[in-house]
Specification:
Blueprint lengths: L4 E4 L2 H6 L7 E9 L4 E7 L11 E7 L5 E7 L8 E7 L7 H4 L7 E9 L12 E7 L4 H6 L3 H6 L2 E8 L6 H12 L1 H7 L2 H4 E7 L10 H7 L1 H6 L10 E7 L1 H13 L13 E5 L4
The structure holds flavin-adenine dinucleotide and NADP nicotinamide-adenine-dinucleotide phosphate.
Flavin-adenine dinucleotide (FAD) binds next to strand 5, strand 6, helix 2 and strand 12.
Length: about 280
């Protein structure tokens, strides 16, 4: 499938669905962005509280009746009535080879125990917040760029998203466009247009900005493009990183080179990292 497709269930349909799975939630809409990427929304358990940027375990029942669960970042903000997820489709992946076929009205399992380090609490106060993502690693930032606290706490927010191909950027591009133009979000978040900067790049298919974000940082091209004269400093800059293990390792070294230290929920500092997937 090369074109984006949308399927949405009516609220009535979703509400009527009978819960047969443990911790069942009902799918309310599904959007296929590319052959390998899709997003979907599900009902939110009334008792679920989470901090924007956290992840939960979601999944389906296996044929033997046991749950098959995987970690997923919640892509929707903490104030949203529903939960949104942004997912890869791994051809032979135990979960996503099946999950990619869900339809509105279907049920998924959602364990309501959110955790994670990509949260505001794990960072010390700063002026400029960087969200560095590759692939589906944009999911936690899809939540955070819709969270009012992000705009209250920082003067500037820079979201970088690097993918192999242009189509892989579409979910993020649409989301940023939505944040900047949707009347309800504008009312909730305030004048975000000036604070949120979107910096998409591709590494394989030609696009206006090409290159790995690590190389663009090391060469200084990123700062030049954004009109930032003096790079990053532990006094002003805070960063959250979500990508493959290789990306995370390489970015950590660069951030440490600027003097930023890794933080955690229990010990906030200047940057935090989370894997977008294992392997
Ligand atoms: C903290 C955390 C948060 C996560 N959040 C998300 C999320 O929001 N969206 C999401 O799609 N996945 C996310 N993942 C990955 C997810 O848990 C599963 O690995 C993924 O759904 C594939 O499941 P699977 O059973 O089909 O294949 P698996 O057996 O889990 O994976 C098979 C292989 O596919 C590749 N792979 C798996 N997931 C990805 C991915 N997201 N991007 C690129 N390659 C991948 C890896 O090479 C992996 O070894 C997250 C993982 C962690 C640890
Ligand atoms: N997406 C596809 O079209 C595709 C096709 C075949 C197989 N796969 C497999 O599917 C899985 C996920 O693919 P994906 O494209 O979503 O994720 P990915 O391989 O992590 O790549 C996502 C983006 O991150 C960049 N990147 C990777 N490692 C980096 C590092 N150390 N530093 C800086 N940037 C880095 C990649 O650049 P580079 O392009 O320079 O690596 C790419 O632009 C992988 O296991 C991959 O082998 C994907």
């Amino acid at each position: 499938m090369n074109e984006m497709t949308d399927v949405t269930a009516s609220t009535a349909q979703a509400a009527q669905a009978v819960k047969v799975l443990p911790d069942a939630q009902t799918v309310t809409s599904v959007t296929h962005w590319t052959d390998t990427l899709f997003s979907f929304r599900v009902t939110r358990p009334a008792s679920l509280r989470f901090r924007s940027g956290e992840f939960v375990m979601i999944g389906l029942l296996k044929d033997d009746g046991k749950p098959l669960l995987r970690a997923y970042s919640i892509a929707s903000p903490a104030w949203d009535d529903e939960l949104e997820f942004y997912s890869i489709k791994v051809q032979d992946g135990p979960l996503t080879s099946r999950l990619q076929h869900i339809q509105p009205g279907d049920q998924i399992i959602l364990r309501p125990k959110p955790v994670g380090t990509l949260v505001h609490d794990a960072l010390l106060p700063g002026k400029r917040l960087w969200f560095f993502s590759t692939g589906t690693g944009i999911a936690p930032f899809a939540s955070l760029i819709r969270d009012p606290q992000t705009y209250e706490d920082y003067e500037q927010i820079i979201l970088t998203h690097t993918c192999r191909d242009v189509a892989d950027l579409e979910y993020g591009r649409r989301l940023v466009e939505h944040v900047k133009s949707d009347a309800t979000l504008r009312e909730l978040l305030g004048d975000v247009v000036e604070k949120l900067v979107y910096y998409p790049t591709t590494t394989r298919e030609e696009s206006p900005k090409m290159g790995r974000i690590t190389n663009l940082l090391k060469s200084g091209a990123l700062f030049e493009d954004l009109g930032i004269a003096d790079g990053m400093s532990p006094q002003t800059d805070r960063a959250m990183v979500c990508g493959s293990i290789g990306l995370n390792t390489d970015l950590k070294e660069i951030l440490e080179g600027f003097g930023l230290r890794e933080g955690a929920n229990s010990d906030p500092a200047e940057y935090v990292v989370e894997k977008a997937f294992v392997g």
